Every structure is written in structure tokens, then in C-alpha cells.
Amino acid sequence: MEQPIRVTFLGPIASFSHQAAVETFGSSADLLPCVSFADAFAAVQEEKADYAIIPCENSTNGSVVQTLDLLADPNGLYGNVKVCGEHYLTIHHCLLTRKGDFLPDQEDYKSISRLYTHPQAWGQCDVFLEKNLKGVERQDVSSTSKGAEIVSKERSERTAAIASRFAAEHHGLEILAENIEDNANNTTRFLVLVNAQADRPATVDFNHIKASVTPGGTAQKKTLISFMVPQDRAGALADALLIFKTHGMNLTSINSRPSQVKAWKYMFLVEGHLTPTSLNADAVSGILHGLKQVTEYCRYLGTWTDQLVPSFEDEAVQYAYTHGDLILQ
Amino acid sequence: MEQPIRVTFLGPIASFSHQAAVETFGSSADLLPCVSFADAFAAVQEEKADYAIIPCENSTNGSVVQTLDLLADPNGLYGNVKVCGEHYLTIHHCLLTRKGDFLPDQEDYKSISRLYTHPQAWGQCDVFLEKNLKGVERQDVSSTSKGAEIVSKERSERTAAIASRFAAEHHGLEILAENIEDNANNTTRFLVLVNAQADRPATVDFNHIKASVTPGGTAQKKTLISFMVPQDRAGALADALLIFKTHGMNLTSINSRPSQVKAWKYMFLVEGHLTPTSLNADAVSGILHGLKQVTEYCRYLGTWTDQLVPSFEDEAVQYAYTHGDLILQ
């Protein structure tokens, strides 16, 4: 019998990363919470997990720098870790209480004695809180799911948490109000990490990951490459970026992080788009060859299938998220 | 008699921004603390202050996203705000107590009952704390200078704060130990903001700012420009960046932030270097003209004199910070 796939996610249990792991890998996978971003990278590097899933970017707040710094990997700790997939998760918040504590009635909200959530979530639910729960005591906790856990263990007080439906189900809480966030399109992008030396990627078979490892697919691919350029050569960064264009790759994202090698020297993390064709099959290796001529350091960090498809309603901040099957048609 | 220059800085009193303001503008300026990054921008836009000084980047932690988001200015609130200078401040921490409470003796440290500082400073003083203050209760506060203030008002307990020499002087505290940070080169870059419509910049006369407004200087200049590119045109970002190179400007920094206009669409903030010569006098206007052809939006955010001069010891993470006079020679 085949071993279940081991996937580590950024904990605690019932976190948004946990939800992303279930949506990507299904619930038959062996899902293991880890306590930090670095632990997720180490688990993949040391083959304690087959995959890791961690947040890398939010549509409102931007990049998650902990993930960028680990991908930049200045000390070469995670040489075998590559990105092999991505998953988009829209962040919806709910007002959660213990079952039977409250009626789903706005009037009854007023007797809530204390609210728990992650500091960022207060700002994300401003309109709802201002209208319904003004003046209620607020307690910051380290994650929204931690707040749900605290409320689930409450014995005497009538407290509530702001957390996901997923956390409500996990901790057996009642959903008093759903989708209480101000911005219904606040979305987090997660990256799926794999060990390039392990044999997992070629044999697995599930939605998103299948798409990224199927050779010859025509879906749009994303590639991530990191590099450092000499500080004293004018135009070095522009030269490096031009190489992507020369090989037909459309730059979609550039992040710079302190190199940790020298102050004010940066590691650049560049992501590009390419629709594979017979003509550009060697584009990525061509880019890497070109970058070696103009950079001090460059590293390939993986290629995977783009899971983001812009909606046709170009005016609205609205996107449809694809499934592996759909994008492979 | 001329009015004193009004400079707002990111408070509280005795913060690193306050220190940067004193080092840049001198103590004769009218220095006004503000409570948020947005307040600093608003004060300049509304001419309630002549200048603002705010952190934009740290050599270890990278960009300060609050500053980037305000420079990106998606709602056009700060149309007159430009960058006119920069200041580098090396972050040194001290162990501070009330005068007379302790002897400057490591043995005596053990009777400290509680330590106060900003969460980030614990990690920056790890070696010293592990060696000298292991197990002492730690209390997070909103800034290192706030910790110094709390200790200065202490009446019964023998508490200590980790904060700057500047905060010690401001709050009348004793320095038990100086430069207790692990990394002696951890440096923050501050930007000086000015209202481009006000007449302050052309008439002021002090170190750094003088350098940036003197026409015809030969010091290396930095220019900041923001832009958005169409998402659906392949190579649009590379085309935009190539324009900087074409006009002889060396890209030194690229940051991308969510545009807030549409999910996964970015505002790029690009900084470039140029040593002014008679041949490239029109480089910046040439770049802006070129960008208008290939971007959806672009905005000039200022030109100022580079205050960072790399040391000749290229191996070491060590830099010499220049003074306005020096760089103008």
C-alpha cells in the first residue's frame, strides 16, 4: 500500500495554511503543522515532509517577507527546495461562538463579553465590528485559529472569535455571521514546496500538483529565479532583467530583499510567465545561462502551473480561480 | 527674523526618527512628533510641516512597507510630496536604567526585575541578553523610546530598557552598557519629504538638504519614480525598466506593492543612480517621457543626493556615511 503524502503547513491546526493544504492535497494526505516558515523549508529539505505549503503574498498586504527570505536562502540551507505549485485562497472571516451560546441575532451580539482574533483581522472586519460590536473588549491572539480554539475551550464567559469557516468546523464552533470582512476579494497566494532530489513530484496525482508536473502541458507556467548583481556595474540589474524578455518570459513580479551578505546589496526574486510551446522549450535554461554571464549569483527556484486566471470583467477586482483539470484542457 | 524650519518625524519623542531629524536638521529646527507614517505625509502635503523624516529601509530587515505604500499613493492624497533627501542612521542599543539604581557591573545586572523594549530589539541584542540577562522578565512596548520613558518614571522596581543613547539623554537615564546589539552595522535609511509646491527647498541651508538642492553639484544623485504597467502586455515591465538604462540611470532598487486598484496588479517603485553631467542633464525628464509611452501610470517622486558611500574595504559589511560638505567637494 502506498504511503500517504506528507504535507507540512504553517500551523496552528485550522490555520489558513491548513485550509490551503486540504484544498490542494485533499484530506487523505498526512497533514503536519509546523511552527515557523523556516521549519516548513527544513522539513522539505530534510525529506521529513514531501511537500510544504506556505503563504507568500496577499492581494492587499503584499509579499510575505519571511517566505521571500527563505527562498533567497543566503546561507544555502535549502538547496533542494523548489516551488512546484501555488494555491489561491480567498480570506473570509466569520463571527464564531460556542454552540448554543448565542442566537444568530444582531441584538444578541451585544452580550458578547470579549472578542479574540489576530491583530490584522480587526482591520479587515472594520465595517462589521463598527456596526455590530462597537466597544466590545478585544484580545489579540497569534492567529485567527488560535482565537477559535480559545473560544471553544471557554467555560464561563460568552466570548467570540473572528476566524474562518474552516476553523469553526475544526473547533466545533457556531457561525453567528459569515463573510464579515470588508473586502470580499482579499486573497492569499500559497506556494507549494518540494524537494527536487526526492522522487515524489513525478508520481503524485492530485489537482494542482498534477498540473505542474505534467510534461508538455500548454497551461501558462510561472518560473521563479533569484539572483544578485554586482553593485559597482552600472546597468547590471537592467541587463539581468532584459534576459527574461529576450527569452520570451514576461516578468510578473520582482521582489528585492537584503542579501544578508553586505548592507544595501540585494537578492532579487523574479517571477515570470511563459506559455510553453515547442519554440520556447529551452527558455528557462536559456535565461539561466544568460543570467550566469551578468550576475554574481543566480538560482533556479522552480516552475509550476499558474493557478490565477483573471476574470473577463476587467473592471472589477474579481478573479476566478482555476482547478488543475480546467487549466490543462 | 526667519521662522524656524518645521520638521515632523515619526514619534514618539526620542525615537530613531527623532534622532535622524536632529542629525539632519540640527536642534534649532522646530521638531514635531507625528503618530503615524500617514500623518507625516499629510503634514507635508498640507504644509503643516516643511519637511518630514521617516524610515524607508533597514539594512537587515529590508523595506518599510508603510512608507512604500504612502509613496505609491494609490488615492492621490499626497500629490505634492516629494523626496528631497536621505539620512543613514546606524542602530545602536544601550542597556538603560534610572540613575543610581545600578552599578555598571555585570554582576549587578542580575537584580534587574524587568526589561522593556520593542519586540524587534530583543532579537537584535540576542548575544548580550543571553550572556547577561538570561531569564529576566521581558515586556514588549511599542517603541524602544517608550520603554526608556517607562523606566524613567519607575518608582519602586529596578527595571531597565533597551534603547538608544539618544533616548537615554532625552529621558535622563543611565547607560549601563552601550552598543549591545549583535550587528554593529544594522542601519536604517530615512527619507526626507518636502512639499514640491512650497518654497522651502530652494532657500534652506543645512547639511544634507543643502546638498540635494544645490544645482550643478557633481555628487551622485538618486531618483525615485513609481509606475504601473498593463498586466496583459508581455514584456511591459522589462520595457519600462529598459528606459532607465537607455538614459544612463543605474537601477539600484525595485520594490513592488499591491496597487490597491486591482488584485495582483502592482505599483513599482524604482530608484536609480545618476552622476549628473552636462550630457545627461535631461535624463530624468527623458525617462519620464519614455515611461509615459509604456506604462499606465507613472510619477516622479524626487531627486536627491546619495548619502551612502561604500567603504573601500569591500570585504567587510562596513560603510562610511558622508556629510553634505564632504560629498559636495
TrEMBL record, chains A, B:
Q: Prephenate dehydratase domain: from which residue to which, for each copy?
A: 6-195
Q: Does the keyword Cell cycle apply?
A: no
The protein's annotated pathway: Amino-acid biosynthesis; L-phenylalanine biosynthesis; phenylpyruvate from prephenate: step 1/1
Q: What does UniProt give as GO cellular component?
A: cytoplasm
Q: Which UniProt keywords apply?
A: Amino-acid biosynthesis, Aromatic amino acid biosynthesis, Lyase, Phenylalanine biosynthesis
Example GO molecular function: prephenate dehydratase activity
Q: Which PANTHER family match?
A: PREPHENATE DEHYDRATASE P PROTEIN, PREPHENATE DEHYDRATASE-RELATED
* Name this polypeptide is given: prephenate dehydratase
Q: Which organism is it from?
A: Aspergillus indologenus CBS 114.80
